[in-house]
Specification:
- The complex is a heterodimer of chains A (305) and B (381).
- Chain A is mainly alpha-helical.
- Chain A has a domain at 12-127 and 138-220.
- Chain A has eleven helices and two strands; from the N terminus they run ααααββααααααα.
- A two-stranded antiparallel sheet of chain A has the order 1-2.
- In chain A, strand 1 (131-134) and strand 2 (138-141) form a beta hairpin.
- The longest helix of chain A is centred in the N-terminal third of the chain and has 32 residues, at 3-34.
- Chain B has 381 residues and is an alpha/beta fold.
- Chain B has two domains: 5-139 and 269-337, Response regulator (Rossmann fold), CATH 3.40.50.2300; 143-264 and 347-378, 3-Layer(aba) Sandwich (Rossmann fold), CATH 3.40.50.2300.
- Chain B has 13 helices and 13 strands.
- Chain B has helices spanning 2-23, 42-56, 73-85, 98-110, 123-126, 143-154, 168-180, 199-207, 220-232, 247-253, 273-286, 292-308, 316-325; strands spanning 29-35, 62-68, 91-93, 114-117, 134-136, 159-165, 184-191, 212-215, 237-241, 261-264, 336-337, 343-355, 358-371.
- In chain B, strands 6, 7, 8, 9, 10, 11, 12 and 13 form an eight-stranded mixed sheet that branches. A five-stranded parallel sheet of chain B has the order 2-1-3-4-5, with helices on both faces.
- In chain B, helix 2 links the parallel strand 1 and strand 2.
- Classes of the chains: A mainly alpha (305), B alpha/beta (381).
Chain lengths: 305, 381
C-alpha cells in the first residue's frame, strides 16, 4: 500500500469522524445535561437531510438548503421536547427509550407520508464538486475537505459556547446539579428546550451535509445513531471533548480497519479467505475498540465519574 | 358506548360476509401478496404491488389481499400463516428479498399453495429445493451477474474490481460474475451491509490498475456509492446489475450515473406491444416511470391470469400445467419456463442516458440470449 493511499484513507477517516461528531455532540449534550437517552436523534438527522433536499430541489441553492436543514431540525427538536420529551425527564431510562423509539417510527412514517418511499435527490453544489489536488499529489474530493472544515469549526464553536458564554455556564451547571441551578433562578425548562434544539440542529446539519454525498431516504438516521452511541460511550457520556476524540477514533478505526485488515491477514492466509475474514473483523473493529476502552476506562475516555 | 357496539356489529357482519365468501370460492382465485411497503426498500415492494394491481385491474375473479412484511423474515412468516390459515388464499406472491423468500416459500409450497415469485430467486429454490408449486417469474439470483460476466469478456474488459456487500446475495452475485468472466479480477472488496460511506473503497479503486468497476450495491448503498464515485474524479468504467441502476434509484443519483452499463431482463424501451402498453398504462396510472420491479409484478399478474383462463386453481395438477405453459404476452418479449420453473429469457445490457430531463436506461445490446440458470440440474420434481 502506497503512502498516498494511506494518507487519503486517513483523510477519509477524519471526514467520517467529523461527521459522527456532529451527531454525537448533540446526543452527548442532551444526555449529559438532561440525563435523557434520545433514540430519535437519528430521525432529526433525517429531518435535516429531507429539508435540505426539498429546499435544494425547490430553490436550487445549497446554502438555503443548509439553513433550512438547521431550522427544520431545530424546530422539530424543540417541538418534540415541548410535546413529548419534557414528560420523560423524571422517568427511568426504559420509559425514555420506549418513547423515543416510538418517535423514530412516527418520524419515519411521517416522512414517508410527506415525501414518498423513493430516495430524494440532493447533490453537492457545483462550486464544491469534483476533486482537488493536495500537496503530495493526493487527489481528494473538495466537498469532503469542506465537511472536515465545517465539522472542526462547529467543534470550536461548541467549545467556545460551553466554556465562555453564559448559556455554557448554565449548561455545565445543569449537568452538575439541576435543583441548584433552578433554585438560582435559571429557567431550567427553557434551558432544556434550548439544549435539545441545539443538539437537533447539529444532527440536522450533519444530515444535510452528508445527504449530498449519500442517499436521502427514510431510515437513514438509524445506522448513524448506533455509531454515535458508540462514540459517546467511548468518549465518556456528557463530554463534548470526549465526543470529538471518540468520533475521530471511531472514524479512523472504521475506515482504516476496512482498508488495512484484509491485506494484513493476506500475509498469512489465502487471499479469498483473508478478504472475507478481514471484512468481517473490520465490521467489528469499532466495537472491539469500545470494549478495549471500557476495560481500562469504564466511564469512557473523558467520563466524569 | 353506542359507537362501540356499532363498530362491533359492523365487524361481525363483515366477518361473516368474508366467511360466506370463502366458502363459495369456486372459479375465483384469492391471491395473498406479502411485500415490503414500509422501512428501507419499500420502493421495490410498492413497484411490484403497483405493477401487479395494474395488470389485474378489472379482473373480478381475482381477489387480492396485500400485507406489508417490513422486510422482516419473522413478520413475513406470520403473515404467510395468516393468509393461508384465515384468509384461505390459493396463490401467494410478492416477496422481494431472498432471505424472506427462503423463510416463507418452502412452507407455502409444502401446504400445497402456489407461490409466484415476482423478485428474489435464491439458488436453493432453483436447485435441490425446487417445488412443483413454486414458479419464479423474475430471475434466478445469478442471472444478471452471469450475463454481465460474459458481456464484459466479449467487450474487451480485462481487469475488473469487484465490490458487493458482505451478505449472501452479494457474494453469490460476485460468484455468478466470476463464473462467466474470463479476464482478471484485480481485487474483491466486501463492504458492510447498509454502509453509507465508500470513500475508503473509492481510494482503493483509484489505486488499483483495474479498467472497470463491477459492483452490486442495492438501494441506498448504490446511491451513496455513485454520488461519491462521481465526486472523486476516478474515471474507470462502471458496471453492475440493474438493481443498482433502477428507475427508482436513478432519480436520486442524477447525472452521476450517466454512462453506466447495467444488465437487466427488462427495459422500458424493449420493442413489443405488451411493453409499450405497460409503460404507457403505468405512467398514466401512477405518474412515474415503471421500474423492472413493476415489470415483474405486472408479468406475474399476467401469468396468473393466463393460467386462470385455462384451469381451476382447485385442480392443482391442471393449474400447474397451465402455469408451466407461460401463455402470456410478457413485457420482456420471449419468456418460457425451464423445467425447474425458472425463466428462460434474454438478458440485455443497458446504458444510463438522459432523455430530456429524466435520467433513465437504454438498451445497447443483448448480454445473454435465452439465459437459463445453472442450478436446474439439481432440481428433481
Amino acid at each position: 500500500m502506497s503512502l498516498i493511499l494511506l494518507i487519503e484513507q486517513v483523510l477519509n477517516g477524519l471526514q467520517f469522524g467529523v461527521m459522527l461528531f456532529l451527531m454525537a455532540a448533540g446526543l452527548t449534550l442532551i444526555f449529559g445535561v438532561m440525563g435523557l437517552i434520545n433514540l430519535a436523534h437519528g430521525s432529526l438527522y433525517m429531518v435535516g437531510a429531507f429539508a435540505a433536499a426539498a429546499v435544494a430541489g425547490w430553490t436550487g441553492s445549497f446554502a438555503l438548503a443548509l439553513v433550512a436543514a438547521l431550522a427544520a431540525a431545530a424546530a422539530a427538536g424543540a417541538l418534540v421536547e415541548l410535546l413529548v420529551i419534557r414528560r420523560l425527564y423524571d422517568r427511568d431510562h426504559l420509559d425514555q427509550v420506549l418513547a423515543t423509539f416510538a418517535l423514530i417510527l412516527i418520524f419515519s412514517e411521517g416522512t414517508r407520508w410527506l415525501f414518498g418511499s423513493f430516495p430524494l435527490f440532493l447533490d453537492v453544489p457545483a462550486a464544491l464538486a469534483g476533486p482537488v489536488m493536495l500537496p503530495g499529489g493526493i487527489l481528494y474530493p473538495l466537498y469532503r475537505l469542506v465537511i472536515i472544515g465545517v465539522g472542526l469549526l462547529v467543534a470550536l464553536g461548541l467549545f467556545w459556547l460551553i466554556a465562555k458564554t453564559r448559556i455554557g455556564v448554565q449548561i455545565r451547571a445543569g449537568e452538575a446539579d439541576r435543583e441548584m441551578i433552578a433554585a438560582l433562578g435559571v429557567d431550567i425548562s427553557k434551558l432544556y428546550t434550548l439544549v435539545f434544539a441545539l443538539g437537533a440542529a447539529l444532527a440536522g446539519l450533519a444530515g444535510a451535509l452528508v445527504g449530498a454525498i449519500q442517499s436521502v431516504q427514510v431510515g437513514m438516521g438509524e445506522p448513524v445513531l448506533i455509531l454515535a452511541f458508540v462514540v459517546i460511550v467511548i468518549g465518556g457520556i456528557g463530554s463534548i471533548k470526549g465526543a470529538l476524540v471518540g468520533s475521530l477514533l471511531v472514524g479512523l478505526t472504521d475506515t482504516l480497519g476496512g482498508v488495512l485488515l484484509p491485506p494484513l491477514l493476506g500475509i498469512f492466509m489465502q487471499a479469498s479467505s483473508a478478504t472475507s475474514v478481514g471484512s468481517a473483523v473490520a465490521s467489528m473493529a469499532i466495537y472491539i475498540l469500545m470494549v478495549g476502552v471500557l476495560l481500562f476506562k469504564p466511564s469512557g475516555l473523558f467520563g466524569g465519574t | 358506548m353506542k359507537l362501540k357496539s356499532l363498530i362491533a356489529a359492523a365487524s361481525i357482519a363483515a366477518l361473516s360476509a368474508g366467511m360466506a365468501y370463502a366458502e363459495a370460492h369456486g372459479g375465483k382465485v384469492k391471491v395473498g401478496m406479502i411485500t415490503t411497503l414500509s422501512g428501507g426498500g419499500a420502493g421495490l415492494g410498492l413497484d411490484v404491488r403497483d405493477g401487479f394491481v395494474l395488470a389485474a385491474k378489472g379482473n373480478e375473479n381475482l381477489e387480492l389481499v396485500i400485507e406489508d412484511d417490513q422486510r422482516k423474515p419473522d413478520i413475513a412468516v406470520q403473515l404467510a400463516d395468516k393468509l393461508i390459515q384465515s384468509e384461505k388464499v390459493d396463490v401467494m406472491t410478492g416477496i422481494i428479498w431472498s432471505n424472506l423468500a427462503m423463510a416463507v416459500v418452502p412452507a407455502v409450497t409444502a401446504q400445497g399453495k402456489f407461490y409466484l415469485s415476482p423478485n428474489a430467486g435464491p439458488s436453493a429454490l432453483a436447485g435441490k429445493g425446487c417445488s412443483p408449486f413454486y414458479f419464479n417469474v423474475a430471475w434466478q439470483n445469478d442471472a444478471f451477474y452471469e450475463a454481465s460476466g460474459s458481456w464484459a469478456s466479449e467487450n474487451g474488459i480485462e481487469k475488473v474490481f469487484l465490490m458487493a456487500p458482505n451478505y449472501p446475495a452479494g457474494t453469490d452475485g460476485m460468484t455468478g460474475f466470476k463464473r462467466t468472466f474470463t479476464g482478471e479480477v484485480v481485487d474483491e472488496v466486501y463492504t458492510k451491509l447498509g454502509q453509507t460511506d465508500y470513500a475508503a473503497e473509492i481510494a482503493q479503486i483509484r489505486a488499483s490498475d483495474a479498467d472497470t468497476v463491477y459492483f452490486f450495491l442495492p438501494g441506498g448503498m448504490g446511491i451513496s456509492f455513485m454520488k461519491q464515485y462521481a465526486g472523486s474524479g476516478v474515471d474507470k468504467k462502471v458496471m453492475g446489475p440493474a438493481f443498482s441502476f433502477d428507475q427508482g434509484i436513478l432519480g436520486a443519483i442524477g447525472d452521476a450515473a450517466l454512462g453506466v452499463k447495467n444488465t437487466s431482463h427488462w427495459s422500458k424501451d424493449i420493442d413489443n406491444e405488451a411493453n409499450k402498453k405497460f409503460v404507457a398504462d403505468f405512467q398514466a396510472e401512477y405518474g412515474r416511470l415503471p421500474s423492472l420491479y413493476a415489470a415483474q409484478g405486472y408479468d406475474t399478474a399476467l401469468l396468473l391470469q393466463s393460467a386462470m383462463g385455462k384451469a381451476d386453481v382447485k385442480d392443482a395438477a391442471a393449474f400447474q400445467a397451465a402455469l408451466e405453459e407461460a401463455d402470456f404476452a410478457s413485457v420482456r418479449g420471449a419468456f418460457a419456463f425451464a423445467p425447474n420453473h425458472h425463466p428462460i429469457q434474454d438478458i440485455y445490457m443497458r446504458e444510463v442516458v438522459k432523455e430530456g430531463d429524466i435520467v433513465t436506461n437504454k438498451i445497447i445490446g443483448v448480454a445473454a440470449s435465452n439465459h437459463q440458470d445453472v442450478y436446474g440440474a439439481d432440481c428433481k420434481m
